[in-house]
Design brief:
binds 4'-deoxy-4'-aminopyridoxal-5'-phosphate, transaminase activity, seven-stranded mixed β-sheet, four-stranded mixed β-sheet, about 40% helix, pyridoxal phosphate, globular, transferase, pyridoxal phosphate binding, Aspartate Aminotransferase, domain 1, Aminotransferase class III-fold pyridoxal phosphate-dependent enzyme, Aspartate Aminotransferase, domain 2, 2 domains
């Protein structure tokens, strides 16, 4: 029968979820998974009334339950929401506004309902344009959940999995190795490895924030090397902004744009509809025209009026509250404070970031996991990332100000004390 969870039901809900939803296939965050019942701005409230600082969610880029987003989506749902084959001004407006944020040339938007689908569609556009059958990706990358995107997500490869149509190159990790020439060389070496398996690359995909790779702040020369390397191998360059985009790295909306490089394709998702599913490929008209010679494109839920209302509301809030500019200020403060804290403990190592995203190396994975749990006990919700799962990831809603950054670092300091206390016998 239907039964809604009530206060105190969290453990029951967890076991019901395990029974009905496949057990370990869809893991939850944290040793004691949280039942979050409400969000407001940078805060998440659990069913027991406890309030947590959200240091992780970028879907809620403009904060949880933002009133502008809620009103606009609600109003549209109350009026009309259907598939995407009718004219609707909200939808066209969203496309035009996205184009206006892009460098000249990236003039065409195709909507999807997820980041995965955006990357898949970009892949189809690239194969039509280039005739290639292989892809080039960064080691330890993540690009989505379909069979092919799972193959393009090297961070998720099971041991021994090595798709022969996929070539990998290094993330921007070693500061001495990020010039245009050396990056181009690496891309070309990855393409040669593909050629051994009979493939030519159609597309090079890279998350512009290298988040799954451990959060890396790549210099412009690295991005230039990706573009030059891809083009010299006959492949197109896709900047995956699904995770890092939408103002997190300020003052504009897109991380790739800071490098001056103009990719052939850009994919968007996650924060785009503040949780209402919407994603997009942004590209040049000629690539879409080429695709249109043999195919058309329609996806039922891709930019319904309500999805577009969510998308436009997110852009409005980002602009009105100048959140991308604020992300730079808050982020710089957060990184300063983290860089002060890290040397005071053996547990933390390198601190990396750009705008309002940070990756903090933790000494090893078990310690990282214990630290994450200790942070939850202190009232802050973060995550782990990186090849070894030992990088603490801080990627909060952009409504954070410096007081939230301070609170987070204070929670982290107390979590570290908690760890060192619990590791002392007796
Ligand atoms: N690309 C990147 C860089 C991502 O971080 C994600 C989601 N974590 C995706 C693609 C896939 O997006 P989605 O989960 O909406 O399919």
């Amino acid at each position: 029968g239907t039964r809604t969870a009530t206060r105190g039901d969290t453990e029951t809900l967890r076991s019901r979820r395990e029974d009905a939803m496949g057990g370990t296939v869809a893991p939850l965050f944290y040793d004691h998974p949280l039942q979050i019942v409400r969000g407001e701005g940078p805060w998440l409230v659990a069913e027991d009334g406890r309030r947590y600082l959200d240091a992780y969610n970028n879907v809620a880029v403009v904060g949880h339950a933002d009133p502008t987003v809620v009103q606009r989506v609600g109003r549209q749902l109350g009026r009309l929401n259907t598939h995407s084959r009718y004219l609707h001004p909200e939808v066209v407006e969203l496309a035009e506004r996205i184009v206006a944020t892009m460098p000249p040339g990236l003039d065409t938007v195709l909507f999807t309902t997820s980041g995965t689908e955006a990357n898949e569609l970009a892949w189809r556009l690239a194969t039509e344009a280039t005739g290639g059958t292989g892809a080039l990706i960064v080691q330890h990358s993540y690009h989505g959940t379909t069979r092919w995107m799972a193959d393009l997500s090297s961070n998720e490869w099971p041991p021994g999995h090595r798709p022969d149509a996929v070539g990998t190159f290094r993330a921007p990790v070693d500061p001495g190795d990020l010039g245009i020439g050396s990056t181009t060389d690496q891309v070309r070496a990855a393409a040669r490895a593909l050629a051994d398996g009979g493939h030519r690359p159609a597309l090079l995909l890279a998350d512009s924030g290298f988040t799954s790779e451990g959060v890396h702040d790549a210099p412009a020369t690295y991005f230039q090397g990706l573009l030059a390397g891809a083009h010299s191998e006959g492949a197109l360059y896709l900047a995956d902004e699904v995770q890092i985009g939408y103002g997190r790295t300020g003052p504009g909306l897109w991380r790739f744009a800071q490098s001056g490089v103009v990719p052939d394709l850009v994919t968007l998702g996650k924060p785009m509809g503040a949780g209402y599913p919407v994603g997009a490929v942004v590209t040049r008209r000629d690539l879409v025209d080429r695709f249109a010679e043999r195919y058309d494109y329609f996806s039922t839920f891709a930019a319904t009026p309500a999805a577009a209302a969510a998308g436009n509301a997110v852009l409005d809030v980002l602009e009105d509250r100048r959140l991308p500019e604020r992300a730079l200020v808050t982020g710089a403060h957060l990184l300063d404070r983290l860089r002060d804290l890290a040397p005071t403990t053996d547990v933390l190592g390198d601190v990396r970031g750009m705008g309002l995203v940070a990756g903090i190396d933790v000494v090893d994975r078990p310690t990282a996991r214990r630290l994450l749990e200790a942070l939850v006990r202190q009232g802050a919700l973060a995550g782990l990332t990186g090849p070894g799962g030992d990088v603490l990831k801080v990627r909060p809603p952009l409504v954070w100000d410096t007081s939230h950054a301070d609170l987070f670092v204070d929670c982290l300091g107390r979590a570290l004390e908690d760890l060192s206390g619990s590791s002392t016998p007796g």
